[in-house]
Amino acid sequence: MAHVLVVDDETSIRDAIRQILEYEGHDVAVAEDGMDALDRYAERRPDLTFLDVKMPGLDGLEVLSRVRENDPSALVVMISGHGTIETAVDATRAGAFDFLQKPLDSDRLLVTLRNALQMRGLSERVQRLREEVEARHEIVGSSREIQQVLERVERVAPTGARVLVTGENGTGKELVARAIHRLSSRSSGPFVEVNCAAIPGELIESELFGHLEGSFTGAVADRAGRFEQADGGTLFLDEVGDMSLDAQAKVLRALEQGVVTRVGGGRAIEVDVRVVAATNKELTEEIEAGRFREDLYYRLNVVPIHVPPLRDRRSDIPMLVHHFSTLAVGGRGPSRDFSDDAVERLRELPWPGNVRELRNTVERLTILADGVRVEASDVDRLAGSGDGAADTGFTDVGTFAEFKERAERSFILHKLREYDWNVSETSRQLDMPRSNLYKKIEKYGLARED
Question: 3-133 and 144-308: same fold?
Fold first, then answer.
């Protein structure tokens, strides 16, 4: 059932529309002039308004303008017995959803109503999705350390300057990049993310700059790279310290000249992109080792932002626990309570995986804890690993072989969490063939908690 407002100075037309809509099961209110319409709209906030153009006093276009000024999401269908193209254009420019001519056809009236309600439902779903996405990318905390990060984000976001975000894995570097984009003049443009550590070195140039069909084995069609996809928006180069030197040279050219060239092509393509880069490495050491270009470092590091590890902002853990427990239920009910002892126990843990590890742990506790609320005993039982077994305390095993297996399992699980279960990156950091790592994961029955 929809709530509909019908505005027309002719009683016969108001009654006819009301009868048609009420027969279809909708709730209908009527108004006989512009001032009456504004009062009724403010009272009812209808899902849809049918509004006559020509009325004594305030005409329909003026009413439309005032309604949209107070409620930008208002859906209004203009109706007129003297409709012209010019009037329809004026109504559309003023924000009308549709324009109908008298005498009204009942089928056209109902189709317009259905289309408008579908539009409202879609808009509401999009808004809910946007709010959910923003909640998942919200930077939570009141500590001095995180407030300094937020203050710098607010200052640099509107400027368009390039930013280099540093910090350990799992601290929330991507959240900082998204906040910079959201607060910038490019917020309506795309936010495109590239994880430089997750892309094989031989494919990173194609990923960033695109390629032409046939330029290499597997290039079956022309493809735009991430720079082109981010045109007018923000390109987030995550783990930029893992990029090859050849790719670094091309990124430097793109930043200096504002152009990219697809792999296999020769035409320069102009791009308007703001680059935000992030790394967990110390780039000055990478420069000294010859693995990172110094000129690119200075291009990227216009404004540095360091995201502190969770161990340096433990006062934020209670807020983060509440935030993540709310996200864990996904709007399907109230967030699950954590006792003070449980929160304190979480504050005491080392959190080598930082905020990402805390989030996974809170979600696991929210789902698997037995009681009405999460207690300290649940933290002791479930915060160690995905299957509830602790990752420490190996001295209760019977043989040295059992000890080695348990220690190996714990170490591999820790590293997988640290690198967000990116098997390629984890195997690289462990200097272990990827096939061997997959065998270890299968052997120990390891699985990502979320």
Answer: yes
| Half-sphere exposure in the Cβ direction for 372 (13 Å, CA) | 0
The whole model's pTM is what?
0.60
Local structure of 15: helix, strand or coil: helix
pLDDT of residue 238: 94
pLDDT of residue 57: 85
**What end-to-end distance do the CA atoms of the chain give, in Å?**
39
pLDDT top residue among 59 and 128 = 59
Nearest to 29 by CA among 59, 5, 56, 65: 5
Which two tokens mark 190? 């795309």
CA atoms within 13 A on the CB side of 303: 20
pLDDT digits (tens, 9 = 90+) for 195-228: 988 887 778 888 999 999 888 887 888 889 999 9
Report domain extents, the chain.
3-133, 144-308, 312-444
Nearest-angstrom CA–CA distance, 353 and 388:
18
Cα(293)–Cα(281) distance, integer angstroms: 14
Distance CA 21, CA 3 (A): 10
Looking at the DSSP assignment, which residues form a beta bridge with residue 48?
A: 4
Strand partners, 51: 7, 78
Q: What is the DSSP secondary-structure string of 378-405?
A: HHHHHSS-TTS--SS--TT-SSHHHHHH
Q: Which amino acid is at 382?
A: L
CA 380 – CA 401 distance, rounded (Å): 26
- Indicate the CATH number for domain 312-444: 1.10.8.60
Hey, what's the torsion of the CAs at 93, 98, 103, 106, to 10 degrees? -170
Q: Which two tokens stand for residue 369?
A: 């804890």
pLDDT of residue 391: 43
Distance CA 366, CA 328 (A): 7
Q: What's the topology of domain 3-133?
A: Rossmann fold (3.40.50)
The DSSP-derived string for 74-108 is --EEEEESS--HHHHHHHHHTT-SEEEESSPPHHH
pLDDT digit string, tens, across residues 407-437: 788 788 888 887 888 888 898 888 898 888 9
Which of 214, 20, 223 is closest to 109 using CA atoms? 20
